[in-house]
């Protein structure tokens, strides 16, 4: 991997304030800039060649002031620094730790399986973002999960910056010795390792899933926390699963017992997303008031989004006394997902006057690029109206809104897009077309946040020229699609060489496919099917000889017009092996793998997506290997 990625880019924490504009000493011509109104998202990529493609821009965050009212002229508040890390204590009572579980809970989304190196890339970016704790995975789930957590612990968990910041690396485990020992073996290489163990405490879970009494549950929890501490781990988090539906008195009892056993963080999960913000805030307040020894630990939240209230519940939990918030990038996760990091962080920042100055260590300028990376690697496309990072989040189509924006941006924007890393259009006025050179291409890619080496620019340049020959103007959305297709892909076990299809109303569709294997060999197959895509996929199956089931197929045009680049996303499931253990249920399940492809030919785009999904699946190590 590129050594540059091991570095942690961190800026001082920006103090929360009561307003949401951005002022910078270098932006005096701010009002004359053109606002880029739409940011189309491409589908999904995959892999280790990401190196350090997402890089910070040259803006200095120390000059920024974020406000959520009307004043752009207020003087910047004093900068607040991240307090020293102590597992069971935060020296500054206003500081809120951000616990990111994108790589664990987020990856439980169907089709969101990521390879070890993809997870490492995301962990590096999370460190740039400044999260306090990275839950890197569930090490006991599979060999690949274990290796991914171990790799992240060794590299990201030891990349200490000049201010002493290094993220805690956490591994999830059920309340049994094998899971806990496996988690410790994976995370122990980090400078700040943590074990997160859990057991269900709600009546319905204890009766029907665990079939255990309250006394048995308390004893298991207490003994497993002690076991985790006995391994040498001095940072242990405990979660009473389904706390939102658990009896209060029982919660106070079991939490008090795990505190005595050595737990340093108590995470209160609304596992099924059933509580309202007022209810969840009351739950946190009651636990804080009634749990013996609670003053010696950190209270945490973990809110699922089944009713669309996860971010609101999380913020309410912080207002009630929680000082660790568990979130994911883009809110991805099981079922309807989790609390969204970007929503929670910016909600606290903009609502600071109502939250007694709560603040985080997140460098908000990395939010958008981190969101893009997770979208690309997970294959989970954002809805256009997703708060903050969706394509329409800073788009203004209504005439009344446009008029207000032209007169004063704060009429309809409570946050400047630059605060979260969405850049204004390039000031040089460069328009990319078939006569553009490598320098112009590299410059625009850098403005979009990508930093590619010379070989990658060269490869991308020829793809760019091929597209530019067929389009008068290559847009930013086109560039993002090309980067995704060329750079964000899994290590190639198979690579598409040539494709020829014949289709129409006069006979069966046929396809001839040439693939290059990892050994450099050339493989050719021909097949017939119900259409060009079906016949091409069948030809690939003849070469790869890996039985799979196609679960999802979708295609989108990146831009408008008949000459638009098409991006295709597929989700496949291997019909043998490629299994993992589900963290919550303990059941073995078959992994699903997504892949994307891009091209002006829809069949070529479809074939690239299928090959990309196969490469990801073949690169995954399941528990049986």
Automatic annotation (TrEMBL):
The keyword Signal does not apply. InterPro entries: 2-IPM_HCS-like (IPR050073), 2-isopropylmalate_synth_dimer (IPR013709), AIPM/Hcit_synth_CS (IPR002034), Aldolase_TIM (IPR013785), LeuA/HCS_post-cat (IPR054691), LeuA_allosteric_dom_sf (IPR036230), LeuA_bact_synth (IPR005671), PYR_CT (IPR000891). CDD domains: DRE_TIM_IPMS (cd07940). One of its GO terms (biological process) is L-leucine biosynthetic process. One of its GO terms (molecular function) is metal ion binding. Pathway: Amino-acid biosynthesis; L-leucine biosynthesis; L-leucine from 3-methyl-2-oxobutanoate: step 1/4. One of its GO terms (cellular component) is chloroplast. Residues 96-368 form the Pyruvate carboxyltransferase domain. The keyword Metal-binding applies. NCBIfam families: leuA_bact (TIGR00973), PRK00915.1-3 (NF002086). Catalyzes the condensation of the acetyl group of acetyl-CoA with 3-methyl-2-oxobutanoate (2-oxoisovalerate) to form 3-carboxy-3-hydroxy-4-methylpentanoate (2-isopropylmalate). Involved in Leu biosynthesis, but does not participate in the chain elongation of glucosinolates. This is 2-isopropylmalate synthase. It comes from Aeschynomene evenia. The lineage of its organism: Eukaryota, Viridiplantae, Streptophyta, Embryophyta, Tracheophyta.
């Amino acid at each position: 991997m590129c050594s540059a990625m091991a570095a942690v880019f961190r800026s001082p924490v920006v103090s929360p304030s009561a307003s949401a504009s951005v002022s910078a000493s270098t932006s005096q011509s701010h009002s004359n800039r053109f606002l880029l109104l739409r940011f189309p998202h491409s589908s999904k990529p995959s892999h280790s060649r990401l190196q350090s493609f997402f890089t910070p821009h040259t803006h200095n965050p120390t000059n920024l002031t974020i406000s959520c009212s009307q004043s752009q002229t207020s003087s910047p508040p004093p900068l607040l620094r991240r307090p020293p890390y102590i597992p069971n204590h935060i020296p500054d009572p206003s500081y809120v730790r951000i616990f990111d579980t994108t790589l664990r809970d987020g990856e439980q989304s169907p089709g969101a399986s990521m390879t070890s190196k993809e997870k490492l890339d995301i962990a590096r970016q999370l460190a740039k973002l400044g999260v306090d704790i990275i839950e890197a995975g569930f090490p006991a789930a599979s060999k690949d999960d274990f290796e991914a957590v171990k790799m992240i612990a060794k590299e990201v968990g030891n990349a200490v910056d000049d201010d002493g910041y290094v993220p805690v690396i956490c591994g999830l485990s059920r309340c049994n010795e094998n899971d806990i020992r496996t988690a410790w073996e994976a995370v122990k290489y980090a400078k700040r390792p943590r074990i997160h163990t859990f057991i269900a405490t709600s009546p319905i879970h204890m009766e029907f899933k665990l079939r255990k009494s309250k006394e048995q549950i308390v004893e298991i929890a207490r003994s497993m926390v002690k076991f985790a501490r006995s391994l040498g781990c001095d940072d242990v988090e405990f979660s009473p699963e389904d706390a939102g539906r658990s009896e209060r008195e029982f919660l106070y009892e079991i939490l008090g017992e795990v505190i005595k056993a050595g737990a340093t963080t108590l995470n209160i999960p609304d596992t099924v997303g059933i509580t309202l913000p007022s209810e969840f805030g009351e739950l946190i307040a009651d636990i804080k008031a009634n749990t013996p020894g609670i003053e010696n630990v950190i209270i945490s939240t973990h809110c699922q989004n089944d009713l669309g209230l996860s971010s609101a519940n999380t913020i309410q939990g912080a207002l009630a006394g929680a000082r660790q918030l568990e979130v994911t990038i883009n809110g991805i996760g099981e079922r309807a997902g989790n609390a969204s990091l970007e929503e929670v962080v910016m909600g606290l920042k903009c609502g600071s006057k109502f939250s007694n100055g709560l603040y985080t260590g997140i460098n908000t300028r990395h939010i958008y690029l981190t969101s893009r990376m997770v979208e690309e690697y997970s294959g989970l496309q954002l809805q256009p109206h997703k708060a903050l990072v969706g394509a329409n989040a800073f788009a203004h189509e209504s005439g009344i809104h446009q008029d207000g924006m032209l007169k004063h941006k704060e009429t309809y924007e409570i946050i400047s897009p630059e605060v979260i890393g969405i850049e204004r259009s390039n000031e040089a006025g460069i328009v990319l077309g078939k006569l553009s050179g490598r320098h112009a291409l590299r410059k625009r890619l850098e403005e979009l946040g990508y930093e590619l080496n010379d070989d990658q620019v060269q490869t991308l340049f020829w793809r760019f020229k091929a597209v530019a020959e067929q389009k008068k103007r290559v847009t930013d959305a086109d560039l993002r699609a090309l980067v995704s297709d060329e750079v964000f892909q899994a290590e190639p076990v198979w690579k598409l060489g040539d494709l020829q299809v014949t289709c129409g109303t006069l006979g069966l569709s046929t396809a001839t496919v040439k693939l290059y294997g990892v050994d450099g060999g050339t493989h050719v197959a021909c097949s017939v099917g119900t259409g060009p895509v079906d016949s091409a996929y069948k030809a690939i199956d003849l070469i790869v000889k890996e039985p799979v089931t196609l679960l999802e197929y979708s295609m989108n045009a990146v831009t408008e017009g008949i000459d638009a680049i098409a991006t295709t996303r597929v989700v496949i499931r291997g019909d043998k092996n490629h299994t993992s253990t589900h963290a919550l249920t303990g059941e073995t399940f078959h992994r699903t793998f997504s892949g994307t492809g891009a091209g002006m030919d829809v069949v070529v785009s479809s074939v690239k997506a299928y090959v990309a999904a196969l490469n990801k699946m073949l690169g995954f190590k399941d528990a049986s290997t």
